[in-house]
Design brief:
The complex is a heterodimer of chains A (305) and B (348). Chain A has 305 residues and is mainly alpha-helical. Chain A is built from 12 helices and no strands. The model of chain A has no long low-confidence stretch (mean pLDDT 80). Chain B has 348 residues and is α/β, with parallel strands linked by helices. The two termini of chain B are 38 Å apart. The C terminus of chain B is likely disordered. Classes of the chains: A mainly alpha (305), B alpha/beta (348). At the A-B interface, α9 and α10 of A face α2 and α3 of B.
C-alpha cells in the first residue's frame, strides 16, 4: 500500500522540525509572560503604554509645532484635520496637539521617578523591617505609621508648598508622601516568603543576610511589588497633575497635562477642547497602567497556576 | 581508631518563650567519626531537629539558647553558650563560613527546600561560589559534576525546581549539601517526604556518597528501617534525652530501654503474624514541664514503684552500649543518685 502523504501532514512535519531546533524552556518569568499574553486587556494596556512611551521619545518628530510657538493670528482654533491643528489651539495660539505630545515627556518620567524613589526609600525600609523583625521592625513601622496618619495628598501639598515650585520638589513631595504605603507592600511580600524552607536552606549553605534578602526573598516576593509598582505610577501621574492643577507642581509654560488643564480652565465654556485633550491623555495613561497592572497581578499570582 | 569529626558533649538547649522555658535538649552527648553514620531516632518533638539546628547554628533567635555543652567540629567548639550579643554575633559570623562548607544539611521536604526562581544548577554553584574563590565558570563546572554524581544529567543545569520530581529535587538538595565536601552532613528526615521506592534510591545514593567523601553523617529519622539500612551507630532520643545509645547491632539485637523495645514492638514484622501492632500509650512529657524523675515513667511498661523518685543516668551495659533506665543502674550510681535526691534508701 502506498503511503499517504497529505499537505497537512507535510505541514505538521515542518512544524516538528522547527520545534526541535527551539530549546523548550520554562522559567517562572516566562510562565508569567505566557499567562499575561493570554489577557487581552492587559496586552491592550501594554500596547497603549508602549505607544505613549514612543510618543515621549519621538516627541520632536511627531509634534508639528514647538511647545511655546505662538501663532497669535490662529488663537482658539477648533480641532480639525484641515487647519493643521489636530487638537486646536489655545488662547495663546499654541498648538494643543504638540503640547500634549511633549507633555508625555514630562508626565511619564515624573510618574516613574516618583514611584521609583518611593520604592527605593520605602521598599528598602520595609524589606529591612521584614527581614530583621522584632524591635527593628517595630521602630521602622511605627515611624511609617506616623507618616501614614497624614493624608498623602495633604502631605504632598505641604511638602510642595514648603519647598516651592519645581520638578525636583514635586518628585520629592510625591515620593515622600507615598513612601509608607510602598514600604508596607514590600514588607508584607517579604514576610510571606520569609518563612519558606528555601530561605532556611539558603542560611544552611552560609548565605549572608544581604544575599538571602536580595537573591532569595526579593525575587520570590516580586509579584505583588511589581503589580503595585504599575498602579503606583498611575496614581503618581494623577497626583502630579492634581498638584500642577492647584498650582503647586509644574508652572504654566511647561506643557504638563495637569498644568495645561489648570492654565485653560477659564476657557472651559468657550473652548472646551483645550481641556479635553490633556484630560483625555491623563485618563488614557492611567487606564492603560491600571489595565496592565491588573493583568500583571493575575499573571504573577501563583494561586491561579 | 580515627578521630571524631563531630562530637557533642552535654548539650542543653532551651527555648525561652513568653509562656515559659521549653527544655528541648537535656544533656545529650554523642560523637561521629569520618565516614560513619549515626542515626538519631525519636518521635516528633523529642528534640532531634533542635540538635541539628544547634549544630548548624540556626536555632531560631532569640528564643533558642544553648544553655551549656559543646559541639566540637574537628575538636573545635562551635556553639556559643554566652548570652552576650557580641559573642553571639562573632559566633554567627564564624558559623556562616562553616555552613555549607564544613557542615552540609539536607532538609526534610525537597519540594520546598529549593528556591523556585533560581535554576537548580545555579543553586548548586551558589554554594561553591560562597565558600571558594572560584570563577563563575568553575563553580558551574563543579555544579554540573555534582549533578552528574547524584544521577541528574548536566543538561538540566538551567531547569527550574518545578520541572523536577520530588526524588530528583532531593538529589539536587543532596548535591548542594555535598558540593563543598563538608566534614559533616546532617540529614533531617531526608526520606520522609518521598515514596518508598525513591526512598531506597536516595538512601543508597547518600550511603555511597558518604563513603566516597568520608563524610560524617548525622541521620535524623523516625524510621527504624532507615537506621537499619545505613547507620553504624544509633541514638534513641526521648524528651530531649538520650535514652539508649550504641551500635546498630546493640540497638536492634539487644535493645534494653523500655522505650526502644516499645518502638520495635510498634513495627510490623514479616516473621511474626500479628493482628494488631502495639502502640505506646500516652503522650511524651511536656518539655515545658519535665518531671524530676524518669521522663518515660508515665508510659513505661517495666516501671517499678521507685522509678518516679529517681532520674537515672546513662549507664554502660556493655562496651559502647548505654541505657538510661533505673533497671540497669549500677549500685554505685544508685547510691549517688539517691543521695543527690536527698533520699535515704533506694531498693530496686
Amino acid at each position: 500500500m502506498a503511503k499517504l502523504y497529505t499537505p497537512a501532514m507535510a505541514a505538521l512535519d515542518r512544524k516538528k522540525i522547527k520545534q526541535k531546533g527551539r530549546v523548550k524552556k520554562s522559567s517562572p518569568g516566562r510562565e508569567a509572560w505566557k499567562r499575561l499574553r493570554r489577557n487581552k486587556l492587559a496586552i491592550a494596556g501594554m500596547i497603549i503604554l508602549i505607544v505613549l512611551i514612543l510618543t515621549a521619545i519621538f516627541a520632536d518628530v511627531i509634534a508639528p509645532y514647538g511647545i511655546d510657538q505662538q501663532m497669535l493670528r490662529n488663537r482658539l482654533q477648533k480641532p480639525s484635520f484641515t487647519s493643521g491643528h489636530l487638537m486646536g489651539t489655545d488662547d495663546f495660539g499654541r498648538d494643543v496637539f504638540s503640547r500634549v505630545v511633549y507633555g508625555a515627556r514630562i508626565s511619564l518620567p515624573i510618574g516613574l521617578i516618583c514611584v521609583f524613589l518611593a520604592f527605593a526609600l520605602g521598599g528598602t525600609l520595609g524589606a529591612i523591617a521584614a527581614f530583621y523583625g522584632g524591635r527593628i521592625d517595630n521602630v521602622i513601622m511605627r515611624f511609617m505609621d506616623i507618616f501614614q496618619s497624614i493624608p498623602p495628598m495633604l502631605m504632598a501639598i505641604a511638602i510642595a508648598a514648603s519647598l516651592g515650585n519645581g520638578v525636583l520638589n514635586l518628585v520629592l513631595a510625591i515620593s515622600i508622601s507615598t513612601m509608607p504605603a510602598r514600604s508596607r507592600i514590600v514588607r508584607a511580600s517579604i514576610l510571606t516568603v520569609k518563612r519558606n524552607d528555601y530561605i532556611e536552606s539558603a542560611r544552611a549553605i552560609g548565605a549572608s543576610s544581604r544575599r538571602q534578602l536580595l537573591k532569595y526573598m526579593l525575587p520570590n516576593a516580586i509579584g505583588p511589588i511589581l503589580t503595585s509598582f504599575t498602579f503606583s505610577v498611575a496614581t503618581a501621574i494623577l497626583t502630579v497633575s492634581s498638584l500642577s492643577y492647584i498650582g503647586l507642581g509644574i508652572s504654566p509654560p511647561t506643557p504638563e497635562w495637569g498644568c495645561m488643564l489648570s492654565a485653560s480652565k477659564e476657557l472651559i465654556r468657550t473652548a472646551p477642547y483645550t481641556l479635553l485633550f490633556p484630560g483625555l491623555m491623563i485618563m488614557i495613561t492611567v487606564l492603560a497602567l491600571n489595565l496592565f497592572g491588573d493583568g500583571l497581578r493575575d499573571a504573577l499570582d501563583p494561586r491561579l497556576k | 581508631m580515627s578521630e571524631n569529626v563531630l562530637e557533642i558533649k552535654n548539650l542543653v538547649v532551651h527555648y525561652e518563650t513568653p509562656d515559659g522555658v521549653s527544655e528541648a535538649v537535656n544533656d545529650v552527648s554523642f560523637s561521629i567519626k569520618a565516614g560513619e553514620t549515626l542515626g538519631l531516632v525519636g518521635e516528633t518533638g523529642a528534640g532531634k531537629t533542635t540538635i541539628a539546628l544547634t549544630i548548624m547554628g540556626l536555632l531560631p533567635k532569640p528564643a533558642g539558647q544553648v544553655i551549656e555543652g559543646e559541639v566540637l567540629l574537628d575538636g573545635k567548639n562551635i556553639v556559643e553558650t554566652s548570652r552576650n550579643k557580641f559573642k553571639q554575633r562573632r559566633n554567627d559570623k564564624m558559623m556562616r563560613k562553616l555552613r555549607g562548607n564544613d557542615i552540609g544539611m539536607i532538609f526534610q521536604d525537597p519540594m520546598s527546600a529549593l528556591n523556585p526562581v533560581m535554576p537548580v544548577g545555579d543553586q548548586i554553584a551558589e554554594v561553591v561560589k560562597l565558600h571558594n574563590k572560584v570563577s563563575k565558570a568553575e563553580a558551574s563546572k563543579r555544579a554540573v559534576e555534582m549533578m552528574e554524581l547524584v544521577g541528574i544529567p548536566g543538561e538540566r543545569y538551567s531547569n527550574y525546581p518545578h520541572e523536577f520530581s520530588g526524588g530528583m529535587k532531593q538529589r539536587i538538595v543532596i548535591a548542594m549539601a555535598l558540593a563543598c565536601n563538608p566534614r559533616v552532613l546532617i540529614a533531617d528526615e531526608p526520606t520522609t517526604a518521598l515514596d518508598v521506592t525513591i526512598q531506597a534510591q536516595v538512601l543508597e545514593l547518600m550511603n555511597g556518597l558518604k563513603s566516597k567523601f568520608k563524610t560524617a553523617l548525622l541521620m535524623i529519622t523516625h524510621d527504624l528501617g532507615v537506621v537499619a539500612e545505613i547507620c553504624d551507630k544509633c541514638a534513641v532520643i526521648y524528651a530531649g534525652q538520650l535514652v539508649e545509645y550504641g551500635t546498630v547491632e546493640h540497638i536492634f539485637n539487644n535493645a534494653k530501654h523500655p522505650y526502644t523495645m516499645a518502638l520495635f514492638e510498634a513495627l510490623p514484622s514479616l516473621d511474626k503474624d500479628v493482628d494488631r501492632l502495639k502502640s505506646i500509650s500516652g503522650l511524651m512529657s511536656d518539655p515545658m514541664d519535665l518531671p524530676s524523675y524518669c521522663t518515660f515513667f508515665d508510659r513505661c511498661d517495666a516501671k517499678s514503684e521507685r522509678c518516679n523518685e529517681l532520674d537515672p543516668p546513662l549507664t554502660e551495659v556493655e562496651p559502647g552500649h548505654f541505657v538510661r533506665c533505673a533497671r540497669f543502674m549500677k549500685d554505685k550510681q544508685k547510691a549517688a543518685v539517691s543521695e543527690g535526691a536527698g533520699q535515704g534508701e533506694v531498693v530496686l
